[in-house]
Amino acid sequence: MAQRTAAEPADWREQLARMPAEFREALLVPRWSELWLDGRSLGEVEAELGRDGSVRLLPVVDAKEDAELARWRAYLAQPRALGPCARECPEQLLALEYDIAESRLKLLTGRAELAAAGAFYALPASGGDGLLLSNDLSLSGAGQEQLTGRYNLDVSGSLGQWTLAGGLQLAQSAARQQRWRQTLGHWYAQREWPRHFFRAGRFAPGAQGMVRMPGRSGDTVVGVMAGSSDALLRDSEFPSLSPIQVSAEAASVAELYRDGVLLYSQRLDGGLQALDTKRLPGGIYPVELRVSKDGVELIRRREWVYKPQRWGDPERRWRYNLFAGQRSLAAEGRLHQGHGWSAGGILNYLWHPRLLLGAAALWQGERGELGASLDWELAERLRLDGGVFLRDCGQGWHAQLARTFATGGLQLGMEQQWQPQGQAQRQWSAAWQRQLGERNSVSLNLRHEARGGVGVDLGLNRRQRWKDRDVDLRLTLFDQPGAAAQPRRRGMEAGLSLSLGESRRSVNVSLGRRSNEAYAAVNVQQQWEQSALRSAGVGLNADSRGVGVNGSLGFSHALADGSAYLSRGANHRFSGGLNLRSTVALGGGGAALSGGLAGGGGGMIVEVETDQPDAALSAQGRWGAQRLRPGRNLVPVSAYQPGRLNFSLGQAAGGAALSLRPASAGYHLNRGGVGYQKLKLMRVVTVMGRLLDAAGQPWAGASLVNHAGRTLSDVGGVFTLDVHASTPELSVERAGVKHCQLVFDPATWPRDGEVVFLGDIGCPEQLAGGQANDQENAG
Fold first, then answer.
1. Which uninterrupted H or E stretch holds 67?
2. Residue 500 above 50 pLDDT?
3. Quick check: 258 and 304 in contact, CB under 8 A?
4. I need a surface site. Which of 367, 441, 699, 741 has the fewest CB within 10 A?
């Protein structure tokens, strides 16, 4: 006999015949199953299987479903034959299969091969119209200086199949001694298609993942843009190919600026370490790194971010990005201030799977700029990125060579610019990392800048076992140019980090010497999981000037999350800062407020209705798990890509039995889209009884339904069903026709623990302690 292929459905009668006789009857009772379409889950359904090889889905009870699952539920509301689809086959349906072992009803359509080949995601028919308002506030101050701060409002919305984006920034610099300045940034509408996009509004003309656009990346235009896009193909959150490393003291802060705009800030530990570059925009562009501590700037230098987008389709050799519009300068309180016309474009060509070439041109009035680049994989682990530019105010080039090994890597970079007067500025850098066995590693950074000379950072790390705990030892030596006309920073630091096991407490100790001055520091950090206060730390540091103290807090609340720190330096100078993030979601018929929404561009409002507020309820998705509280919660989800949120329930206080419906929720949202799902989490009791018809005989095959689920009465009319303790109701149905609804009080009936015995009941009867509504003769 020929072997059945994966696309060929298993025969239902063959599966049934292979089963023991005592199990066959159990399969014919409605059972919870998973509905799969072309290899992906659509959600949990209640399926009724027939002896004739048919299947139908029972109606959903008090739940809101996504459009795709609702379409298939409507089709399967009538019995459909398992096996090849012969008639009434919507959406290229080829076959239906029920897998007994996995309790899965599988649908196979003509689009299955396309989905398996990694095709572009289709835009959702209804993209979850909504609005996401992300608020980000950062405040810092030191000594008697004026407060420095920044507030960003990023707007992302969905209207039909269009994405709406906008941004507002309020900023104040202590150095300028001025009031808060208001800048209206980008505001545009964008539409995605497989491989292409179109944008209209005010935007920066750069393109992620392609050759660097000539000119200042901070310039914006009011106009239109069209180009290649892989947004419907994959996510682009990956680190820079060239790590940005820095030697810093404990409790210092690193900031990355692009054309004077803050992109990212990070709290630093002591020693040589790499910054987290995953959250930075894609592309190849320069940034300015600033490191400060206690209000004093220690390091300022230029770095490069290398995040070229991976080529999505090798068969498509060309990629493009074209724009035209009027230059728009940042104007306080104004949407647009015109300053001449601008146009430009970028072309990328995949010469070879390992060689990508790029060219760019920009015109601003009578001024023109040109650029070119290459991304060349010279060997399996050897890569060269480089570019040249030519403009009225100068010319230059940059290149980076990266070599990776099984135990480390080496990066070499160089940049040179010529001014119109012929003056040249050159800088180069080298970074080497090596793993020496399982417990030791070494890192070396060298760089040369025209203004500061050569800088060196050397880091040695070792992980040692001590009393069944891992201890991280580090040694850092550094010789760096000073910032803001300060002398060079020379010295060394030895550090120790110890984790205290299950208490989630850690201790960091460091001793060092910088610029002929010795110092020491100790920090204790405590973390919590199930608490609004996520982390707290306190530290002491001492040098020849005295002793300083510092403290930090990290918190997460339903309204906002963030961090705060305060320090008193050895120079008796106070400094502190506060970072707050929150997101407001509007859509799906409601609104929700949450802490910072880190995810893939969309959000789901999950409203929890419960009589057990202390129960541990969580939602799991591609972005991890998130605890759900009673009321409205905002959960991050991926844009464009269909998926599901699965809801899981922990043990309730006192061991009460709980019912959660639904167990999962599907989504398919546009970027900026907002979905909605309501959950019911209720305490349940189990009721047992015997259903009688109008003649007083056992009524077999009737459906008993309530908010918590449904069941069928057996041949003797006996049934067992969970009901919500707060709404003890039963609806009696037969063949899709509702006969009556029974309301009863569990306290008036015999019970054994959480099981209530109703005895003989029927539609024409009045139940003690309750009533029979809408009674009909079941005949």
1. helix 67-75
2. yes
3. no
4. 367
Round to whole Å and give the CA distance between 245 and 538: 25
- In whole angstroms, give the CA distance from residue 619 to residue 642: 16
Report the amino acid identity of residue 641. Answer: Q
Q: Which residues pair with 162 in a beta bridge?
A: 159, 191
CB 123 within 8 A of CB 67: no
CB atoms within 10 A of CB 39: 11
- Residues contacting residue 511 through CB under 8 Å, at least 6 positions apart: 493, 494, 495, 518, 519, 520
Per-residue pLDDT tens over the stretch 368-402: 888 898 888 888 788 888 888 887 777 888 898 98
Using an 8 Å Cβ cutoff, are 244 and 254 in contact? Answer: no
Q: Tokens for 155, please give them.
A: 């707007």
Question: Can you give the pTM of this predicted structure?
Answer: 0.71
What counts of helices (H) and strands (E) characterise the chain?
A: 4, 54
Dihedral, CA of residue 61, residue 65, residue 68 and residue 69, to nearest 10:
-30
Beta strands 674-692; 601-610: pairing state: parallel
Inter-residue contact 76 to 68 (CB < 8 Å): no
Identity of the amino acid at 674: V
DSSP state of 529: S
Two tokens, residue 680: 């019911």
Of 52, 45, 9, 44, the residue nearest 28 (C-alpha): 52
Cα gap 259→742, rounded to integer Å = 70
**For residues 323 and 362, what is the distance between their CA atoms, to the nearest angstrom?**
9
Contact in structure between 285 and 205 (CB atoms under 8 Å): no
HEC letters along 156-179: EEEECCEEEEEEEEEEECCCCCCC
